[in-house]
Specification:
With about 350 residues, the chain is α+β, with helices and mostly antiparallel strands. The protein is built from 8 helices and 20 strands. The protein has 3 domains: about 70 residues, Uridine Diphospho-n-acetylenolpyruvylglucosamine Reductase, domain 2 (2-Layer Sandwich); about 120 residues, Uridine Diphospho-n-acetylenolpyruvylglucosamine Reductase, domain 3, CATH 3.30.465.10; about 100 residues, UDP-N-acetylenolpyruvoylglucosamine reductase, C-terminal domain (Uridine Diphospho-n-acetylenolpyruvylglucosamine Reductase, domain 1). The protein binds uridine-diphosphate-2(N-acetylglucosaminyl) butyric acid.
Length: about 350
């Protein structure tokens, strides 16, 4: 086990915020977790699991022991008649994992290309884009309990996936077992890629690509390339401008609330959901409040997509949080809607 003290976290969070971990341990497999748990000083300390750092805002140095997940591995686990099961170590870069499946001729994950972060973080917030969510392709995962060191597996139902949500985002309630936040470290994730492959092309941006190019029957690689192009045009590259992707979830409202808002704001972007509720585009709401391009200190609202907050250089986590709160207040005052942040504030 390799323990670093006072380790810089700036390279490990996509916002590029300067902060340090009092103690950082790189986890390449379950044996490293067992070693931490058995360690006389580190064992009893609180732990903080860090993947690619693409969904966190650091507001100061991190005192719990940081477990930086670097479990490697990618393989085809099973070739069945109805699906191919692929397995990845939790530390693999998500986009590289998707690109690898495409190189193997395996379609199914292409709509999720270029999402920053690691494979291990993908089930935590049930990543989603361009009409597909991780839960649509998820098979199972292996994790380790940070209290007991016990290894366990979860299937999709046990992960309790929701929109940008899972069991890993909930703390156990006092009188129930539900919730694994802070409790589990994901080691491996398995994905089910259905046979025959079917494209997912319902999202408006992909429809536009088909019209523009005249390609009406794209293969998985073509969709992968389109998604990469769409994301590159709209979203800032965290290697160039620090950010954590969408900063807020798209809120849902009742059809009555939606009608009420449409009466006042006829152009509001809204989508009906299968459960009868209406989803509103948070980016549109923030944009309508005039936030595009605005800043608090060095934290700003991205010029091309108001849902993304960016680090213009040297932003602190405090500035990001202040900007986020100001946005929430103005959206609430104008639309009566409370925006919920996506990233975890640490
Ligand atoms: N819009 C505006 N102004 C803006 C931003 C968006 O008017 O500044 C409008 C767009 O014109 C569009 C609508 O809002 O009509 C939705 O925008 P977009 O298609 O860009 O998607 P989104 O709802 O902003 C969601 C996900 C993204 C994902 C895209 C594509 C959430 C919180 N975000 O964004 O996920 O890539 O759809 O599927 O659900 C992420 O979670 O980090 C992320 C980037």
């Amino acid at each position: 086990m390799f323990v670093e003290s006072n380790a810089p976290l700036q390279p490990h969070n996509t916002f590029g915020i300067v902060a340090r971990a009092r103690t950082l341990v790189r986890v390449r497999g379950p044996e490293d977790v067992h070693a931490v748990l058995a360690h006389p000083e580190l064992g009893p300390e609180p732990k903080f699991v860090l993947g690619g750092g693409s969904n966190i805002v650091l507001t100061g140095d991190v005192k719990p022991v940081v477990l930086k997940v670097e479990v490697p591995g990618r393989r085809v686990l099973e070739e069945g008649p109805k699906a191919t099961i692929v397995e990845f170590g939790a530390g693999e870069n998500w986009h590289e994992a998707v690109a690898w499946t495409i190189e193997q001729g395996l379609g199914g994950l292409e709509n999720l290309a270029l999402i920053p972060g690691t494979v291990g973080a993908s089930p935590v917030q049930n990543i989603g884009a361009y009409g597909l969510e991780l839960q649509d392709r998820f098979e199972s995962l292996d994790a380790i309990d940070l209290m007991t060191g016990r290894e366990f597996s979860l299937d999709a139902a046990q992960c309790a996936f929701g929109y940008r949500d899972s069991v890993f985002k909930h703390s156990p309630a006092r009188d129930s077992d539900f919730g694994l936040a802070g409790r589990a470290l994901i080691l491996r994730v398995r994905m089910r890629l259905p046979k025959p492959w079917k494209p997912v092309l319902g999202y408006l941006d992909l429809q536009r690509k088909m019209t523009e190019t005249g390609v009406t029957h794209p293969d998985a690689r073509q969709i992968f390339d389109w998604v990469c192009a769409i994301r590159t045009a709209k979203l800032p590259d965290p290697r160039v401008i620090g950010n954590a992707g969408s900063f807020f979830k798209n809120p849902t409202v009742t059809p009555e609330q939606c009608q009420d808002i449409i009466a006042r704001e006829p152009n509001i972007v809204h989508y009906p959901m299968p459960d009868g509720t209406m989803k509103l585009a948070a980016g549109w709401l923030i944009d309508a409040c005039g936030w595009k391009g605005k800043s608090v200190g060095q934290a700003g609202v991205y010029e091309k997509q108001a849902l993304v907050l960016v680090n213009r250089g040297g932003a602190t986590g405090g500035e990001v949080v202040t900007l986020a709160r100001a946005i929430q207040t103005s959206v609430y005052e104008r639309f009566g809607i409370r925006l919920e942040p996506e990233p975890v504030v640490v």
